[in-house]
Design brief:
With 216 residues, the protein is mainly α. 79% of the residues lie in helices and 2% in strands.
């Protein structure tokens, strides 16, 4: 059951419309950085393997098999080690993910403002960022004047005043997007780790109980 929940959360994050719209973009020959998906793929793998291992543990407990319970415990230890490694990787790279996406956006924004922007897809990339995140420009100052200078790059508002008030800068929106997603991944990873610890303890207790009962 825990494996199914983790798998469901990971698949939801993988197919989230905001991240998918942004991370599938391509600027010329350069693909948008998709390091964010590494953590999600790890969660998907852990969730799928947990479902299989869970059935193995249940069958071992029903059959009172020390071999199956020992295999169940070993698989949990390996999964737990992988999850700890993924958590360390995520903590180290949490700022780098948003930084890479912001750099990709900045390159597209510069190309979109160039006179020959029709020769590249920078304009389309920037408009996708702006419409997906409801933002305009890399910072507040540029975001305020961009609709006045290039009204084709930002989502349409009813008035200039609304452009100044309602739009947030895209750097801030990118930080909020990925920090929120990584926060969810972190919660899911902690929940899985706690469940794994209880499962490992329970499997060892059952294994020892079966061994002692066979002696008597």
């Amino acid at each position: 059951l825990a494996g199914g929940i983790i798998l469901g959360v990971a698949l939801w994050l993988r197919h989230d419309s905001q991240t998918t719209n942004i991370l599938y973009l391509q600027l010329g020959d350069k693909q948008a950085p998709n390091t964010f998906y590494v953590g999600i793929y790890i969660l998907i793998a852990v969730g799928a393997v947990m479902m299989f291992v869970g059935f193995l543990g249940c069958y071992g407990a029903i059959q009172e098999s020390q071999c199956l319970l020992g295999t169940f415990f070993t698989c949990l230890v390996i999964l737990f080690a992988c999850e700890v490694a993924a958590g360390i990787w995520g903590f180290v790279n949490k700022d780098q993910i948003a930084k890479d996406v912001k750099q990709f956006y900045d390159q597209a924004f510069q190309q979109a403002l160039m006179a020959e922007s029709d020769m590249n897809n920078g304009k389309a990339v920037v408009k996708t960022f702006h419409e997906t995140l409801d933002c305009c420009g890399p910072d507040n100052a540029v975001g305020a004047i961009t609709p006045l200078w290039r009204d084709d790059l930002c989502p349409k508002k009813e008035s200039v005043l609304k452009n100044l008030i309602e739009f947030s800068n895209c750097h801030k929106k990118i930080d909020e997007l990925f920090s929120g997603k990584l926060y969810l991944i972190g919660i899911a990873a902690i929940v899985v780790a706690v469940i794994m610890i209880f499962e490992m303890i329970l499997s060892m207790v059952l294994c020892c109980g079966i061994r002692n009962s066979s002696i008597y």
